[in-house]
Give the backbone structure.
Amino acid sequence: MNETPHTLSSARTLWELIARRAGLTPDRPVLLQGDRVLTFGGLRTRSERVAAGLYGMGVRPGTVVAWQLPTRIETVLLSCALARLGAVQSPVIPFYRDREAGFALRASKAEFFAVPGVWRGHDHTEMARRLGAEGIFEAYDSLPDGDPSVLPPPPAEGTSVRWIYWTSGTTSDPKGVLHTDRSLLAGGSCLAHALRLTPDDVGSMAFPYAHIAGPDYTVMLLVHGVPAVLFEHFALPDALAEYRRHGVTVAGGSTAFYSLFLAEQRRHPGRKVIPSLRLLAGGGAPKPPELYHAVVREMGVQLTHGYGMTEVPMITMGDPQDTPENLATTEGRPPEGMEIRIVDGEIRLRGEAVCQGYLDPAQTAAAFDAEGFLRTGDLGRVTDSGHLVLTGRLKDVIIRKGENISAKEIEDLLAAHPAVADAAVIGLPDAERGELVCAVVEQPPAAAGLTLPEVTSFLRARGLAVHKLPERLEVVEALPRNDTLRKVLKHRLRERFGGRPARDR
């Protein structure tokens, strides 16, 4: 069979895709980290040995194995080994602590728990013991090892639930999201086909591998046969040396990552900070149109942004060959097989990449409508060309004197202000108006202080309706963000400013 990216993405299971890619290009690199290089052939061979070691420990098809590990070659090997066994794996973000990690262990009924030992000052092994975890083992520099001849056959179908991913749980307990190999393969294949990679490309993973983006990106590497540089800890400018060393051509992760790269480029005008870079790509948070134009103009690279969530790892993705207008103002188009329906402004989804639901059956029943469409809680519209435009969140609509106001609309406009590095717009309780509009702004270094009249004047000049203008301005040193794709945590801003009287600006 003449394998192509299209035929490879038709694999039934993740392990089948790994094996087929290893048979095609066994000597090509897939993972780069520091001085270490793992090839596609090595990924298959070493994963089978790790699978045999796990089998010797008692891991069987269907066994639930939780792992809380940083972005390392060993983490990918462990995950692939579990896929070879047909175990059910529950990745836990390495920054989670007792509350979130303990909930994930209890809810998933994990029989084994892989941890990195002491990592970045936190003793994960001690935490695991404190939480009463079963089958604790460390998987950082070394992994279980065994003879692959003892292994049972690999899983033959990809429609059983073998993955439990966790939502962020910022205001309540995390939700356990149920995925199959096929749903993850469908999401990763969408990303692979949309980005139009070539054999000369080198990608990068600067986000936690335990995030849903981990298998998404891995599938893309397997489909195209290209490598990626792994970053156990991402920080600029320190990480730039690795991007340059390995000739990374595709970087990104989310909107916050684009902003970080752009800020670093602005410190070195006239010289590309990553000479080999040609494309920034990612998703996970809304992208202001002005950020797209600034990246293209100042970094000299293309930017494609997509829309995904833990429940559906890839919904739409921008195409590098699309028009600047569509790349700046939309989230791209869905792949074949992804159905998007807009109901009362809410985006609803049905397709192979959609999860099977949640660990809690009541949450599953509430999340899907009568026709099997997932309610996303996101607001948007589909253009005549089939592109998806996000307009906000159902819970991120500010209702002022009975009028609905989109926080995203104001945030996109504020992103163009030279004294604004990032902005979050929130609604705060107000006895007279129901809610008032509050703009919380993070400024770039050395920027002149902002006042509320300056902000409202700027927004008026850009045509924002008077009833949408912020009535309050708060300037913060840094917006609170999560540790995965660095999304702004608006609930913390509401908690911080909700009970504080407005100040005269």
Notes: The mean pLDDT is 92.
